[in-house]
Amino acid sequence: MKIRAAVVRKAGLPRPYQQSKPVTIEEIDLAPPGFAEVLVKICAAGVCHSDLSVVSGDVPLPLPLVLGHEAAGEVVELGAGVDDLAVGDHVITLFAPACGKCVSCVEGRPTRCLAAGRSNQRGTLLSGAKRLSKDGEAINHNLGASSFADHAVLARSAVVKIDKSFAFEDAALFGCAVVTGAGAVVNTADVKMGTSVAVIGLGGVGLSALLAARAAGARKIVALDVKPDKLTFAKTLGATDAFNATEADVVKKVAAATAGGVDCAIETSGAVAGFDLAYRAIRRGGTVVTTSLPNVKSTWPLSPTHLVLMEATLKGSYMGSAVPTRDIPRFMEMFAQGRLPIDKLKSGTIRLDQINEAFDRLADGEVVRQVILYD
């Protein structure tokens, strides 16, 4: 079938993207779903910093590629072997499918799936196939999703069925921003009631983490960012303190507000400076959890002696260390109850052909989550 999709053919073009236009809207071909795959009509898709990282070249993936990984839509066709979904079901797309057979999957850690890691890096679906093409040229899938298109073929394990009562533009955020941010809090960091938490970077993932920390009963939630308006917004969402991350004495301010430093720092900024701040903001015995994807060549100097004396813990968190079929329904129920108001994170809706301007706004830190709506 013919679909309309956002294609990036060359990464690292200069800004503003509105002028250099790294993303083009093209009519391309989408093959039918294969075994254990589904065809989804995409109804809404969030614009995430991970998509921007592909455009900027910070995270290199094989090109050409159809962008997008955070979306919600309706199942319109089932591939062979899919018997637990029906045409018309509403689903959220996932950027971490799972084979169900590798050591990570059998240990109950599907986001660490070895097969999915390989297929995502190669620009294929979990099966190793590519269903996208144009004039005979294969086009790569972005993280097995490629949801910046009006239709997408995904592995069955890359979608989670949801209740039809949820609006698509709200549901889309749960596929990345919410499951990554909230998951980092409840799964990776295991934040308990009475804990002190810092959140560094107040984008969609960071603010989802903030909301989850509040829901978990954190007594102190310190918000850190470079944008004053985001700090003000964080206070309305439940941050007890908010400081500009660029201030020379910001670490002292965090220590003063939390009696010596936070128990846990959730770092979502996408910058090494943000990770460094997270490490300096924790108390002795504290934990840093990072969800960031800065430039792949980035490094951070660490003194092993200081790490030992601090008894600090450093953790990476991919997709919130989640079990998506368990966690996403839980988070959506919390949203329905008003305990996780992620709808407040939306920065407006856009059309697919406005994607380059949307990336400019995202790169400038002007927005939290823009959502593409499809007809």
Could you outline the blueprint of secondary structure elements for this entry?
Layout: E1 2-8, H1 17-20, E2 23-30, E3 37-47, H2 49-56, E4 65-66, E5 71-78, E6 90-93, H3 103-106, H4 114-122, E7 132-134, E8 137-141, E9 151-155, E10 159-162, H5 168-171, H6 177-188, E11 196-200, H7 204-216, E12 220-225, H8 228-237, E13 241-244, H9 250-257, E14 262-267, H10 272-281, E15 282-290, H11 304-310, E16 313-316, H12 324-336, E17 346-350, H13 355-363, E18 369-373
Helix pairs in contact: 6-7, 6-12
How would you characterize the overall build of this protein?
The protein is of the alpha/beta class and 375 residues long. It has two domains: 2-175 and 341-373, Quinone Oxidoreductase, Chain A, domain 1 (Alpha-Beta Complex); 181-319, 3-Layer(aba) Sandwich (Rossmann fold). The protein contains 13 helices and 18 strands. It has helices at residues 17-20, 49-56, 103-106, 114-122, 168-171, 177-188, 204-216, 228-237, 250-257, 272-281, 304-310, 324-336, 355-363, and strands at residues 2-8, 23-30, 37-47, 65-66, 71-78, 90-93, 132-134, 137-141, 151-155, 159-162, 196-200, 220-225, 241-244, 262-267, 282-290, 313-316, 346-350, 369-373. β12 (220-225), α8 and β13 form a beta-alpha-beta unit.
